[in-house]
Amino acid sequence: MYFQRVIDMKPSSVRIRRAFTLVELLVVIAIIGVLVALLLPAVQFAREAARRMQCSNNLRQIGIAIHTHHDTVRVLPTGGDMPWPLIYNYITPYGEAFGPEKQGLGWAFQVLPYLEANNLHDHQAANNLQRQMNLEQAEMSGYFCPSRRRNVKQQDRILMDYAASTPSNNLRLDNTSSLQFNSFFKGSNAHDIATSKNQSYFGVIVRTNWDWRTQSAVGSDPPLNLGAISDGTSTTMMLGEKRLMPNQYLSGAWHDDRGWTDGWDPDTLRLTSAPLGPDVRSQADQNTGLVGDIGYHFGSAHPNGMNICFADDSVKWIPFSIDRNTFNRMGHRQDNQVNTGAGN
Length: 344
Known about the structure:
- By secondary structure, the protein is of the alpha+beta class.
- The protein has helices at 2-8, 22-73, 107-110, 118-121, 128-136, 177-185, 324-330, and strands spanning 153-154, 157-158, 162-166, 237-241, 269-271, 276-278, 284-285, 289-290, 298-300, 305-310, 315-319.
- The chain has a five-stranded mixed beta sheet, covered by helices on one side. Strands 1-2 form a two-stranded antiparallel sheet. A two-stranded parallel sheet has the order 6-9.
- Strand 10 (305-310) and strand 11 form a beta hairpin.
- The longest helix has 52 residues, at 22-73.
């Protein structure tokens, strides 16, 4: 009976099973590969757009903190008085940190109370050395661009990706390191605040007018208020991204070794008179050509441009192709030129 039913089954009722041929399998794999190749750039673009937005938000929050500092203290934070300052030289006998008129640590330290880090700003320790170490090792995620790195340490010091801007005082574009150095520090000895006696600085963030050793002012600019920005807060640059080398992201460089607790040093300040551009692999980068020492440069890990924060705390996109004279004038608060060069 069983065999009879098998014999009686029509060929059309029998389900025939067959596998993919090798050619069909290769075609499917090729199509998937093409789709992935088309999708990957879009994914990378979306990720970079998100990172760029986070970087912009970081600068925006810092800008708001600087404005809150101004509203509370009635002046803007200062840039510190020299490289590698020690906090215990800038505190009262009761352990309270000096304000901007005497503070040797720069703007990134001075705005801590307005970035919900008041406990870090006012932290007391068993001894001076411990207080200094606690500061240097404190993680500040908002001081890093996510396109580049996060909370990187150099010998236990937390670094930073952002810097305040200052122009050449004579608005000249200086291309050599020695000229930039003299314009930036105003003296042959960067660690000696006395070499900056009776000097003026024309950025939004000025050098602290104080010598902790003599406990006296040195005749430079006092802390500024927003009224001193005669070119307009919406067109004067206050902060921007620093230019670094990718192979030094995790180790730091001479201009990226102390981090956010530094004073008047390229760790926390950069020159608008110096060239700007993307992060480079060497001083002779094959894509951007000869760039020299980038220790005073603004730049970023983003394609084609960088985020900068203006003195009204707005953040805008600046292309690397911006005219350098325009960029330098953007860093000057009172050159009577209104130049933004900013994109959206």
